[in-house]
Amino acid sequence: MTDCNDFIVINNNIKDWIKLNVGGRIIHTTMTTLSKEPESMLNAMFKKGSTWNHSRDENGCILVDADPRYFLVLLNYLRHGELILEPNLNYYGVLALAKYFQIKSITDIIEQEENNNNGWITVLEDSFLDNRLDVTKWVINKDCTGSNFDVVDGRFKLMNRVYLVSKEQYNPEDGEIKITGTWYRESIEDFFQIATRSCGLSQGAPYYEVKSGLEFNYCRGLASIVGRGGMIPTGMVKIKKMGEFYFPAATPIHFEIYDDGNTVSFTLSESVTKTSITIETTCTSSSLLNYIAIHNREKTGNNHVSYVTNLKIQKWSKSTMRRNKYRKITKKLSSP
Fold first, then answer.
1. The pLDDT value given to residue 84
2. What is the mean pLDDT of residues 311-318?
3. Which GO MF term does the entry hold, naming one (predicted)?
4. With CB atoms 3.0 to 4.6 Å apart as the test, which of 47, 111, 184, 332 could cross-link to 35 if both were Cys?
């Protein structure tokens, strides 16, 4: 029987390193990482002094019979204490492997997230596939001279600071709201702006910003959450993924907004380069009017337009608040 301490040394000065062959993929990690959760099977396999009978490949790497894509999700969680579920991975594949290796903290997080998903009800959804404006869902505001819109190719086209405003109101104090969709811009000068707790009207010239509301804004590489009118963000803005977020024109950008009347967050992600930014803050200001207002503040002129599609507004239906707010979830691990 081979002791797992008879590992493959990658660096003679760092005796903790080990090579694994996971489903045919060579992965470098440490025995400390693999034994991070004391009650897991991985800890039993790789903790100091373990007598687990490891099988090895022709190069001496320890064989692990698992899909490397899902195994790396577990491994990164053990390394950094953050569970990151990429959109190209099967949600249940991660859960199944976490159960197999008995990493209970991961299964708890995923099962709680599944409960979160079941707590959302969709109150408005529009992909504009019939290339017309559904007046039962939306109201158009054309305060800016020359502003206009079109619905084409399954997208709502915003021209010259036009507003697309929800016909119904969605007060986050009656249940957290979640807004998702896809945004395209034709010029890097185009702004992206969505406001919750809004009157749906503009301030007028010169910029036609929203008159009141909590605005989720992207402009020239920077994402921000801005208070308009009497709306005042009260907390420090936390950037969950550091750095500016740039992307070319005509690239589809997925957005995700949460507002529970207190904590608010704004995420933009780009699937081609797999980059994203998330910011979070707090805002306790209440509003008498709670429309959702979507607009852009691009340069006026027909050559500057933005598009939105796949719009969905959801409401949290359970009496208890969500515990896990985001797909990227931080959970501290104690030392073994």
1. 79
2. 91
3. cullin family protein binding
4. 47
